[in-house]
Known about the structure:
Elements: E1 7-15, E2 25-32, E3 42-45, E4 48-49, E5 57-65, E6 76-81, E7 96-99
Antiparallel strand pairs: 1-5, 2-3, 2-4, 2-6, 6-7
Amino acid sequence: MNNDNRECLGSFFVKNTGKVSTPYTRLAAFLSDDSKLDSADILLSAPVFSQISPGQTRSKPIKLTAPKEMSLQGKYLIAHVDADGIVPHRKGDDGTVVYGPLP
Length: 103
């Protein structure tokens, strides 16, 4: 993290664990006060991944910046894979990944 704890650099990786190719997939990255995705969370980024074949992994570098006057410290990053709801998920998998709290 840098810029007064407002920026975070990294990469997002998305893997198709299914048996058929996916169409495009949007990954929405949110900043949250807790580990639950809800309407109070702030959307930071929404990169789009092109078609992914079965077993294939795609990655994208990402730079997340918190709104002015807000620090990432103590917050959670929540990634929602397939934010547009195009790809069916396995039972019990809501397509979210949580990281945090951030140092």
